[in-house]
């Protein structure tokens, strides 16, 4: 006999139980069956029967996926999800539950409520005392605990008491004595106890505390930097990025967690994410330091350093390290480097073309469609795909790739983490935590898991890297003294003033400046100082405070930014009204400054569909979210009104004025509602609504002040950035 299957899905509506709502999908499988023997005699070609001799059978099964529920129901569903054919539920729950519950609360429910066989009310075994039912329940709980230890063992790292781990160990001793699980938990407890509690800075390999005794931070020696091979520097940057990215705990990236980092009590929140941001900023500042740190450099020498960094960025591209690649491009786009026009004139044309190609990767066109597609294409590929490069650059790249292939060394992919933080913060802003009846909106967690799963996939791919640390380069990198914003801008002015402006004739100068400006603007990268960016080619979707310190954050995004967004270049001290973000807030960097990079490294299949500005979205309702098997909805985004809702950014006048908070508004929201939400976002008392006025920034010298009870959605100017200021009334 031969068989073939054809599967179709049908929406089966909802099922409501006490404390839970389920999405139901009907799975219909068509099985075609035919007897091969005698097929030719019956007129079939080969061993295939004609259609009239094929037997068709249909099987229909029901898939139940919990959509919303109480915490108790969500925990109970861990034990029943497999039977409901919701096979991904356990992984989704474990990756996202920290947004609405603590490990202790979940463990107590799992062990005390459902693990106690005498009082268990779990499903069909509620009142059965048979040995078989006990074994079934024990096996289900063991399966959940095993998955928890496999996927999220860090949840049990609670020094010094380790209460959850000890509770789990006690349960296993009583119910599963001498099992492999018991031994595993004992070993995990010993491992945690033997390890020192790592400080926040301990996560970052670039901390100055890692320096050898007697060493001090120093400005880079150009000769030492020039002696390093480009591909070796790129490999070492990738080595550091890989080590940090593999340590990222995925739930640290959840919007509801990451957006709380500004509170005083949360200064140690999400250390693994902060570490990647610190590394990103360190790379960006290192680039600026090597270019500007030595006053005595001649124009040609400074241009050679810029060329070297472009080559290193290209090597990062070959290594599929999008984090350091973006950090380097960000530094070269920063105002203090960009304004070195005479130096840029000495950069060779071929290298400028290479720089343009690398910058294009992070173009914000169509919600960073280029970088999303690229990451999706290369996430699981063995080597970088450089087919889109210019012919000359492609030849050089192919040689490097061929060397790697000859060595038989596979590569992983290091993404720019800010892409995922962006999407997760957008989801957290756009979707409600609870639905009608106070039930936890688990559809929101399914949408978040789509992003978390991509992070986990890329973390797994990073195991393919085979990089050996070069302590000479790593120590050189750690020794670099990072210039402050003011220092870098002052050194930039000095370098430009000292340049011999007679090297080129006025005509050739004008031609070269035009070529460089066209190069930069053509890739939506940045605009020259003192020149406002064109409306059709926005600079990062908003503007940035002086970015000379190139303090860039992984929470940075532009047209779709929402929470504590870190802005991209470029504006200068001569362009003070273009607001950036306090790096201690928005970019979590050590010096004040703002981000200077653009782009996103998320797959095309992101939960945010690239849009053209049309009203294709829909207002998220309390129970918004996709039914299992249905296509995701287009969510509200920044700078576009869609389906009666949009996302605006609100800063506090005079208090962290450079830090924006994102607010989701609908066409029903009036000034008091929006003001109250903005105060809550900024951790201020919401009962002071009457003391504030809401103002939209129209331009450098124009503001739109809203009347007390105005409808914000209809009253705002939708043709400029959706940037607002909350100001205390005089």
From TrEMBL:
<dbReference type="Pfam" id="PF00618">
    <property type="entry name" value="RasGEF_N"/>
</dbReference>
<dbReference type="InterPro" id="IPR000651">
    <property type="entry name" value="Ras-like_Gua-exchang_fac_N"/>
</dbReference>
<dbReference type="Pfam" id="PF00788">
    <property type="entry name" value="RA"/>
</dbReference>
<dbReference type="Pfam" id="PF00617">
    <property type="entry name" value="RasGEF"/>
</dbReference>
<dbReference type="InterPro" id="IPR029071">
    <property type="entry name" value="Ubiquitin-like_domsf"/>
</dbReference>
<dbReference type="InterPro" id="IPR001895">
    <property type="entry name" value="RASGEF_cat_dom"/>
</dbReference>
<dbReference type="InterPro" id="IPR023578">
    <property type="entry name" value="Ras_GEF_dom_sf"/>
</dbReference>
<feature type="compositionally biased region" description="Polar residues">
    <location>
        <begin position="547"/>
        <end position="557"/>
    </location>
</feature>
<feature type="domain" description="Ras-associating">
    <location>
        <begin position="644"/>
        <end position="730"/>
    </location>
</feature>
<feature type="compositionally biased region" description="Basic and acidic residues">
    <location>
        <begin position="575"/>
        <end position="585"/>
    </location>
</feature>
<dbReference type="InterPro" id="IPR000159">
    <property type="entry name" value="RA_dom"/>
</dbReference>
<feature type="domain" description="N-terminal Ras-GEF">
    <location>
        <begin position="62"/>
        <end position="193"/>
    </location>
</feature>
<feature type="compositionally biased region" description="Low complexity">
    <location>
        <begin position="537"/>
        <end position="546"/>
    </location>
</feature>
<dbReference type="GO" id="GO:0007265">
    <property type="term" value="P:Ras protein signal transduction"/>
</dbReference>
<dbReference type="InterPro" id="IPR019804">
    <property type="entry name" value="Ras_G-nucl-exch_fac_CS"/>
</dbReference>
<dbReference type="InterPro" id="IPR036964">
    <property type="entry name" value="RASGEF_cat_dom_sf"/>
</dbReference>
<dbReference type="GO" id="GO:0005085">
    <property type="term" value="F:guanyl-nucleotide exchange factor activity"/>
</dbReference>
<dbReference type="InterPro" id="IPR008937">
    <property type="entry name" value="Ras-like_GEF"/>
</dbReference>
<dbReference type="GO" id="GO:0005886">
    <property type="term" value="C:plasma membrane"/>
</dbReference>
<feature type="region of interest" description="Disordered">
    <location>
        <begin position="524"/>
        <end position="636"/>
    </location>
</feature>
<feature type="compositionally biased region" description="Low complexity">
    <location>
        <begin position="586"/>
        <end position="626"/>
    </location>
</feature>
<keyword id="KW-0344">Guanine-nucleotide releasing factor</keyword>
<feature type="domain" description="Ras-GEF">
    <location>
        <begin position="229"/>
        <end position="498"/>
    </location>
</feature>
<protein>
    <submittedName>
        <fullName>RGL1 protein</fullName>
    </submittedName>
</protein>
């Amino acid at each position: 006999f031969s068989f073939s299957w054809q599967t179709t899905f049908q929406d089966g509506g909802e099922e409501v139980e006490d404390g839970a709502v389920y999405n139901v999908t009907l799975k219909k499988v068509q099985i075609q069956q035919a007897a091969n023997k005698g097929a030719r005699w019956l007129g079939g070609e080969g061993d295939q029967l004609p259609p009239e001799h094929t037997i068709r059978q249909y099987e229909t099964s029901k898939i139940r996926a919990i959509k919303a529920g109480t915490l108790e129901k969500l925990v109970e569903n861990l034990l029943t999800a497999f039977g409901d054919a919701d096979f991904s539920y356990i992984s989704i729950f474990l990756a996202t539950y920290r947004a609405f519950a603590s490990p202790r609360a979940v463990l107590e429910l799992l062990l005390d409520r459902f693990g106690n066989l005498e009082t268990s009310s779990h499903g069909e075994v509620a009142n059965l005392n048979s040995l078989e039912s006990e074994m079934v329940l024990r096996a289900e709980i063991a399966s959940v605990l095993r998955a928890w230890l496999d996927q999220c063992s860090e949840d049990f790292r609670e020094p010094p008491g380790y209460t959850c781990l000890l509770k789990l160990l006690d349960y296993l001793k009583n119910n599963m004595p001498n099992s492999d699980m018991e031994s595993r938990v004992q070993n995990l407890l010993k491992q945690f106890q033997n390890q020192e509690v790592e400080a926040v800075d301990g996560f970052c390999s670039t901390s100055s505390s890692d320096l050898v005794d007697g060493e001090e931070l120093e400005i880079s020696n150009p000769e030492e930097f020039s002696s390093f091979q480009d591909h070796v520097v790129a490999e070492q940057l990738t080595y550091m990025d890989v080590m940090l990215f593999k340590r990222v705990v995925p739930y640290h990236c959840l919007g509801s967690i990451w957006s709380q980092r500004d509170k005083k009590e949360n200064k140690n929140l999400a250390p693994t994410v902060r570490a990647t941001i610190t590394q990103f900023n360190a790379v960006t500042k290192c680039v600026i330091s090597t270019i500007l740190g030595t006053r005595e450099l001649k124009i040609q020498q400074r241009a050679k350093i810029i060329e070297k960094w472009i080559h290193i960025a290209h090597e990062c591209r070959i290594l599929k390290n999008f984090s350091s690649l973006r950090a380097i491009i960000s530094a070269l786009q920063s105002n203090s480097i960009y304004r070195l026009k005479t130096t840029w004139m000495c950069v060779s044309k071929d290298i400028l073309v290479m720089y343009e190609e690398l910058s294009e990767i992070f173009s914000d066109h169509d919600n960073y469609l280029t970088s999303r597609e690229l990451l999706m294409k290369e996430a699981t590929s063995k080597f970088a795909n450089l087919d889109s490069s210019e012919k000359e650059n492609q030849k050089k790249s192919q040689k490097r790739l061929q060397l790697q292939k000859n060595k038989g060394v596979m590569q992983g992919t290091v993404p720019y983490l800010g892409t995922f933080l962006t999407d997760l913060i957008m989801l957290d802003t756009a979707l409600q935590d609870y639905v009608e009846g106070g039930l936890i909106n688990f559809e929101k967690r399914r949408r978040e898991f789509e992003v978390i799963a991509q992070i986990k996939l890329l973390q797994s791919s990073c195991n393919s890297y085979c990089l050996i640390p070069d302590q000479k380069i790593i120590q050189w990198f750690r020794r670099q003294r990072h210039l402050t914003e003011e220092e870098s801008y002052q050194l930039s002015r000095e370098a430009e003033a000292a340049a011999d402006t007679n090297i080129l004739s006025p005509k050739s100068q004008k031609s070269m400046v035009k070529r460089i400006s066209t190069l930069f603007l053509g890739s939506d990268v940045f605009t020259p100082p003192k020149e406002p960016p064109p409306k059709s080619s926005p600079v990062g979707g908003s503007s940035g405070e002086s970015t000379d310190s190139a303090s860039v954050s992984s929470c940075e995004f532009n047209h779709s930014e929402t929470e504590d967004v870190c802005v991209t270049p470029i504006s200068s001290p001569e362009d003070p009204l273009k607001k950036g973000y306090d790096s201690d807030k928005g970019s979590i960097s050590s010096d004040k400054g703002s981000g200077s990079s653009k782009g996103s490294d998320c797959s095309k299949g992101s939960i945010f569909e690239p849009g053209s500005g049309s009203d294709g979205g829909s207002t998220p309702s309390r129970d918004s979210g996709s039914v299992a098997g249905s296509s995701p909805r287009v969510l509200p985004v920044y700078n576009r009104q869609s389906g009666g809702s949009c996302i605006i950014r609100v800063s506090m006048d005079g208090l962290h004025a450079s830090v924006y908070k994102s607010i989701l508004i609908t066409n029903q929201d009036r000034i008091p509602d929006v003001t109250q939400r903005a105060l809550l976002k900024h951790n201020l008392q919401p009962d002071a609504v009457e003391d504030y006025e809401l103002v939209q920034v129209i331009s450098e010298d124009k503001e739109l002040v809203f009347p007390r009870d105005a409808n914000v959605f209809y009253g705002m100017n939708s043709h400029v950035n959706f940037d607002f200021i909350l100001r205390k009334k005089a």
